[in-house]
Amino acid sequence: MGRRYPTTRRHDYERKSGGSESVVFSPDGHRIVAGSADGSLQLWDPGTGQRVGDLLTGHTGAVLSVGFSPDGHRIVSGSADTNLRLWNADAGQPIGDPMTGHTAAVTNVEFSPQGLRIVSASDDRTVRLWDAGTVRPIGEPMNSHTNLMLEMTFSADGQQLISTGLGQNRRLWPAPALTAWPSMVCTKLTQNMSHQQWHDWVSTDIGYGELCPGLPIPPDNPSQ
Q: Do residues 44 and 35 touch, judged by C-beta distance below 8 A?
């Protein structure tokens, strides 16, 4: 979720950016990203208090949650416009199209500790999992709480997720529902899919992806 900027100085950032809805540090502490009520994001240098680069624009509603990837090179944002967006923190540019699927404001977003997944929570009372590389949804939305969700966070090892709803009711999501399944499956396999299998079983529109890094990619012709 990131560290909140100290209250004693947060007022300066709100005044300069037009009203911050969410503010977090980068993992190395050298940058701050602030999501604003006007739908923009702004990077800041916490040492000087100066803006870094131009505004990141694309959302059409207030940015309610922001988060850095573990390596600090990407930013994810969730907005009242019901969408998530992924950003290149170095170039200040969007990555791919908006991530759509929620039907109400996206109130929480976070990268998994490995940076491979993004999880989002919404006022539509669902949790969704996304592939941080393809910005595509993974599986079906998970119904989370009967009341509005307030907060969620990954465990340090990325194997569990806990979400808190209105009334302080909490739900703990097991690893297979989130990030563990791919790694569990890969430990039992000896090779990746071939390009032809990807074409037949996954999609002709999505570029080939090595699902189990380190395992060989078989030829399309088994005799090769």
A: no
